[in-house]
Design a protein that fits this description.
The chain is an alpha/beta fold. It has two domains: 251 residues, Rossmann fold, CATH 3.40.50; 200 residues, SGNH hydrolase (Rossmann fold), CATH 3.40.50.1110. It has 15 helices and 20 strands. A hairpin with an 8-residue loop joins strand 14 and strand 15. The radius of gyration is 26 Å and the shape is elongated.
Length: 506
């Protein structure tokens, strides 16, 4: 690459409303080949000139680079702010996006709307579709931008623009319109290129209602459901969606996925319960990480992948008095299949049996001798040690031995192990026949040991015991035998396990 002059601005990202002095502006810097970026968020402000109302107007956009450029080319993600915002302010308010860029997932592009708005339905006189085309032409002159892998994410008015661009051009491989659906006018356009769509709407949104209606500048909005179905129809998807219940932090989500589309694309519609006009869907939830995984999973250009899961345990692992596909490992497998491309393959091996203690599981592992090339392993064991009144010291020793064995099955990569807490059978009709309080206390002791060991050794531990402790109040969480978790309870297990599993097999 020829020498490139980069005007670097260092943005120290703060929470909304944070104070402090203005960040320093670094002087121009001449670099050879790829930019060498310091270990702080570094951005480059650029401008393209566009004719608006007969006048040449300079329109800015911000480029946000990874901390360390280690590839020849990076995917590109456009982020379109909502009405009244700017690209720079939007980036400053979204630390999760900065982290994704820092980690080298993609290069972020943050354009500024003309008069702080995007022209979706005559909001301004600017041709914003042309504006994005000009930016892409500008990017195409540098070797670090993969202009064949461009994605678009928009909020509100920005979501309207990504919908329009995806309908009118072939720029984007996938889009994520957040808290906005298509207008009726845009919905009538048949795109010439199939894209994957990740649409998000809040049920309680009173600005852009999910049921559609009047929009800005005299536009008419489709309902959120009709907008998602319109995309699916455009790409000949299977119109019977896969429906999943999700937990986004503190908020429940009903997720609809239309698969079997042209070019292996997917259309996903997520309806957030209790959410209004906001993109903050639940505490400690990385929405943009989820979106990025969706984008990658629907990229038909990537080679097919095989994911192998191993689940170790007892009756809580295989399930009792539930359907063959209702156990948590089976539901985890199915959920991963929905998340990944149709060309990918997810396989599951289970080593578990009703009544097994840690000793039984150890012996079974020796007998079956699993390979060491699994991508993910789950471990849920110990309830029968408690039920059969085995010495707790046995569990202390053998649990650690089982953890070490499990890690060996994922190539000694401890990050690919998920330890699952022991359910509490005291909160079942069967468990009420004995000393329920003593059972719960014992279960807590086993779980505390496992949780402490996981924390001390940097292992992933998922607590699901509280779900099973709702069994007396909600009989639907208990299987027909009156003792084990139901398929619904297992689904709730998977809601907590799935985000961790996705991150581990990414």
């Amino acid at each position: 690459m020829t020498k490139l002059v980069l005007w670097l601005s260092v943005f120290f990202l703060t929470a909304c409303g944070g104070g402090g002095s203005s960040p320093p502006i670094l002087p121009p810097q001449v670099v050879d080949s790829l930019p060498t970026l310091p270990d702080v968020p570094v951005s480059e402000k650029k401008i393209v000139t566009q004719n608006i109302d007969g006048q040449l107007v300079d329109r800015p956009y911000l480029i946000r680079y990874p901390k360390n450029l280690s590839k020849d080319k990076y995917p590109v993600v456009f982020f379109f702010h909502g009405s009244g915002g700017t690209g720079e302010s939007w980036l400053a308010d979204n630390d999760d996006v900065s982290t994704l860029v820092d980690d080298g997932k993609f290069i972020g592009i943050f354009p500024d709307g003309y008069e702080e708005r995007w022209n979706v339905s005559n909001e301004t006189n600017a041709d914003d579709v042309e504006f994005v085309s000009l930016i892409i032409n500008d990017l195409d002159g540098s070797g670090i931008f993969d202009v064949n892998k461009i994605y678009g994410i928009g909020i509100s008015n920005g979501a309207g623009l990504v919908n329009r661009i995806a309908k009118e051009t072939t720029h984007f491989k996938a889009i994520a319109p957040i808290i906005s659906q298509q207008t009726v006018t845009i919905g009538k356009i048949v795109p010439s290129r199939a894209v994957s769509v990740f649409q998000v709407n809040g049920i309680e949104d009173d600005v852009i209602p999910v049921n559609g209606g009047s929009g800005v500048a005299g536009s008419a909005l489709m309902s959120a459901q009709a907008s998602a179905e319109n995309w699916a129809l455009n790409f000949n998807c299977n119109m019977t969606p896969t429906i999943q219940n999700k937990d986004w932090g503190s908020q429940a989500v009903k997720q609809y996925t239309f698969g079997s589309c042209i070019d292996k694309k997917k259309v996903r519609y997520s309806l957030v319960e209790g959410a209004g006009y906001s993109a903050d869907f639940g505490e400690n939830f990385d929405l943009y990480g989820v979106i990025w995984r969706f984008f990658i999973s629907t990229d038909a250009d990537l080679p097919a992948r095989n994911f192998n899961i191993l689940s170790l345990g007892d009756s809580y692992t295989i399930g009792e008095s539930v359907c063959d596909t209702c156990s948590f490992p089976e539901q985890l497998k199915s959920s991963l299949e929905v998340e990944y491309s149709e060309q990918d393959d997810v396989s599951l091996k289970v080593i578990a049996k009703t009544g097994w203690t840690t000793s039984n599981l150890k012996n079974a592992i020796i007998s079956e001798a699993p390979s060491n090339d699994f991508d993910l392993v789950t471990l849920l064991i110990g309830v029968n040690n408690q039920y059969q009144s085995k010495p707790f010291s046995v569990y202390e020793i053998e649990f650690i031995e089982l953890v070490n064995s499990a890690i060996s099955f994922v190539g000694d990569d401890a990050t690919k192990l998920i330890i699952v807490s022991i359910p509490d059978y005291a909160y079942t009709p069967y468990g009420q026949n004995g000393n329920a309080l003593a059972v719960s206390a014992d279960i807590d002791r086993y779980n505390s040991f496992a949780a402490d060991y996981a924390e001390e050794n940097g292992l992933t531990y998922v607590y699901i015991t509280d779900i099973t402790r709702e069994g007396l109040d909600d009989p639907n969480l208990v299987a027909l035998d009156g003792l084990h978790p139901s398929g619904l309870a297992y689904a709730k297990f998977v809601e907590r396990i799935l985000p961790l599993a996705l991150a581990k097999v990414e």
